[in-house]
Amino acid sequence: MEMHQVRYFLAVAEHLNFTRAAEACNVAQPSLTRAVKLLEEELGGPLFHRERANTHLSELGRMVHPHLAQVYEEMQVAKRLARDAIRLERVPLKLGVMCTIAPAQLVELVSSVQVRHPGVELDIADRSARELDATLLDGGLEVAVYCLPDRDPDARLHVMPLYREQMMIVVPNGHALASSNAIRVRDLDGLSYVNRSNCEFNGYAGQFFRAQGVSCRTVYRSERDDWVLAMIRSGLGFGFMPEYSVTDREVVARPLIEPEFWRTVNLVTVRGRPHSPAVGALVREAMRVPWHGKPAMALARTAAAHGAEDASALSTP
After folding, report:
1. Domain span at 100
2. Rounded mean pLDDT of the chain?
3. Strand pairing partners for 11?
4. Environment class of residue 152 by beta-carbon count within 10 Å: exposed (0-12), middle (13-18) or buried (19+)?
5. Residue 154 pLDDT
6. Model pTM greater than 0.85?
7. pLDDT tens, 168-188?
8. CATH code at 154?
């Protein structure tokens, strides 16, 4: 069964006249008649009773008409979706974003996608890093922005680094540690701690504290960084936060050292998985926009690699 045969059948069923149906389909009447005849042979019986002034659907024709109409309509919908996807018109894209990334850090990317690819309908899913990692691999997301500093990326994932930031100790203005240029792990022994429940370092950083015999008392937990900052500002305790997420002027952020902690935020997709054109558009914009005033790390690394290759070629006799 060919789709043009279905279209011609539906046209004849609408006009009940082969000549007018051929005109509506912009095809020669013999071609339309032949196509309907082939469809009748495939379905096993006449679809129309052809009378000089009274062409009408046969019993078989009435039976298959709603099904063929549905098939044709669904094909038209599929064509529209494919066309829109290719042209990036009304293409939904669900972007997973690690909930510990401040919204301001993604504004330029989101704005760039909207301006340069207005047909991409971006839906942002805000989740923990580990939830994003699992959902991405399970197929619930096509692309995500997150990091897991406690382990190497899964080999099934394609990881494009965007930016790197240091983890800071955050205290209120006037705190005894606020005047320090940097804060050592051992400086925190015995202090009260405000815990970020979704911190990607949870279960990882603690080993370094224990190794130095440092113990802190957790007094408050929250999934929301704004609440954590409010508790720090009120003097409840110190916090452990990424550098670019500390935006409150009534607190002070200092690098944690001995050891230092850093996180690299990545744009992540699944290797070998077919992706919609919207994913390609997002990746291009992520590589184009600056991240905290610098090019995406993946772009810088690619440029450096090419530079090394060029230098090697020049030095080859």
Report:
1. 91-161+267-315
2. 88
3. none
4. exposed
5. 87
6. no
7. 999 999 999 999 999 999 999
8. 3.40.190.10
